[in-house]
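The freezer alarm interrupted the setup, so I double-checked each line after restarting. Inputs confirmed:
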Amino acid sequence: DIQMTQSPSSLSASVGDRISITCRASQTINSYLNWYQQKPGKAPNLLIYAASSLHSGVPSRFSGSGSGTDFTLTISSLQPEDFATYYCQQNYDIPWTFGRGTKVEIK
Amino acid sequence: QVTLKESGPALVKPTQTLTLTCSFSGLSVSSTGLRASWLRQPPGQAPEWLARIDWDEDKFYSPSLRTRLTISKDTSKNQVVLTMTNMDPVDTATYYCARMPVGGVNAFDIWGQGTVVTVSS
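Predicted 3D structure, all chains:
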């Protein structure tokens, strides 16, 4: 299985901050990397697919970058509704796997 | 508008078989390019992909659970069904179905609301 390692596991930030979350794959996955946001009691919500493509309806403050094994999700100016848990997921090879998540909390 | 809705028992006993149903609305489960998956998420943990069935009936399973899972489609009811045998308390989780279309948005772009399953005697 391809292991996905996210860091940090949690972070505290303020509204308006720029934050980045990294995701590293245990082997190359080209650009088969997706990012999801999840709020308590809700299903994950797709933000970014194919490493850098913004899903329809997702605010432009979200961006993704990377290829191969190293990827980054950036939120350019954190908004109150962005406090949530973020997961990366690879669909390069089955079994599709997720990172353990990064919880973004209010400082 | 495409929506997915999971249904199934909230409580199962250890060793029992779990059967979950994902009902599609706004899209046929036989639509070309549709890949429907089941995932689960134990409390406080990350999602875990379990199984997938494609529009052409190809099926894929998580190797670690392969012997316990069966995924199928009921086209007459427009549903995708997952069965998991020999349930154990560690299988307690929220179970989701999700769509990953072929081409374009190659990710889980639509999820159901999830159904909570507790395994306990």
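Quick read of the result. Residues 40 and 107 of chain B are 16 Å apart (CA to CA).
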